[in-house]
Amino acid sequence: MSTVTTPAGHAATAPAAPPRRLLDWRLRFAALSLIWGFSFLLIKVGTATYAPFQVTLGRLAFGTAVLAAAMAIRRERLPRGTRVWGHLTVAAFLLNALPFSLFAYAELTIPSALAGICNATSPLWGMALSLVALSEDRPTRVRVAGLGLGFLGVLTVLGAWQGFQGLDATGTALALLGSLSYPIGWIYVRRTLAGTGHSHLSMTGAQLLLATAQLAVVTPLFTTLPTRLSVGPLLAVAALGALGTGLAVLLQYGLVAEVGPTTAQMVTYFIPVIATAAGVALLGEGLTWSTPVGAVIVLAGAALTQIRPKAGAGPRQ
Predict the structure, then answer these.
(1) pLDDT tens for each residue of 297-309
(2) Alpha helices in the chain (DSSP H)
């Protein structure tokens, strides 16, 4: 069984025989792009009233509920084994609890559009880390060029030539750290949980359950109960969890099973575009020329880092 990773930071084994789908995969691909693209807007709306840890806890709780319902419908059980649960605890922290919290804190001070673009740097971080951590994932000139191009795009988005004027350094750093956490988690999962024999649904359900437990412990230590429950932000958190974390995972794994991980992961390149459009159109966030131009450069670099030499190819490019 092969291990596949998603933009949202989950890992699972791809089933050998995908079931028939009611909706064409292109419609589900578009739905997934919209759901994940709007997630950054929902974070911004949620953190307007609730503390970042509370937003993350709510997101994980609603997401876990969706996967628990899916497991009950399919009559799947949680994985067994102390070793598996130990590794899942680390994966839950690196792929869910930590990055979700970092993005929530980041959006206290940076626009949701910028957070979405920072999220798109995950493939770049993954490429850089794989050169060190994965001996079988060797670099090519094209992929290294993509890495350099991608980080040039990051500097363009941040306006490096202007001395990063008007940029909240802390918030941006938190968002970039959140995007870095995903590939660290992917590499960890690839090394420790590949080939466990458990279904992707049970593994992901357990992972979200553990992440929810982690936030349930941390949140009361750093936050106080809100004095009032604002309906709008609460609905945003519920949608973020049920759609952006729960349903999105199910859609992603269905796409991976049907069209393969390479096509399914193309959703990564639509997320920052949708996040930027949503932030500007619905939240009135400002937009300078360097943001969309830099985002295009980031995505071009990220695309190049995903190019791998064909089997049996000659010397590295």
Answers:
(1) 888 888 887 776 6
(2) 25-47, 52-74, 82-92, 98-106, 112-119, 122-133, 141-158, 169-192, 200-222, 231-241, 248-259, 261-264, 271-283, 290-305
